[in-house]
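User: Working on a comparison across species. This one is Response regulator transcription factor from Kribbella yunnanensis. Can you predict its structure so I can line it up against the others?
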Amino acid sequence: MIRHSLRLIVDGASDLEVVGEAGTGEGAVAKAVELRPDVVLMDIRMPGGDGIEATRRITSELPGTRVVVLSMFELDEYVHAALQAGASGFLLKDAEPDRLVDAVRRTHTGESLFAPSILTRLVEHYLGRSMPKATSALLTERETEVLTLIGRGLSNQEITHTLTISMGTAKTHIGNLLAKLQARDRAQLVIAAYERGLVTTPHPT
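Assistant: Here's the predicted structure for Response regulator transcription factor from Kribbella yunnanensis:
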């Protein structure tokens, strides 16, 4: 029933198309390998292997495919496990249809999506522990500004407005950050911002 609802929502967008469905973790991996989708909407709890393990296998085998994890819960261990598995975002299943469609689009372009409450909890998690050693890559002043805003959960458009730069310039800086910090996607840039101490207070989106 949930998959049917998700299909209706995604297929209702003129620029998106559902190319496959699966009801188990193993099935999700097999379908992803077969169809090579741009974005996978992944449930946390499924028979035949949970969504976290399926996410790990998909992101490992298909570096061009991004995964958005969906869950009824915002438990910290789910969020952290999803990120460690390579997920590019984490949304609650009760998200509004427009936000879900926006998540698919933005994830495809390299952004990461988190429900506001989840982003706040993620920040609090990193602030409440000793920081891992951050990469020693040298960043320019502008790159540091962009990374800080990414850590606060701002979208590309919000970054352009905040720094008064063009979208192309913002994307160039983000591309440089991904390369310098050896980050797979924007979700890992968020974590890098916390590791570098650029985000010091929870900043709800």
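For your comparison, note: Residues 201-205 have pLDDT under 50 and may be disordered.

User: Helpful, thanks.
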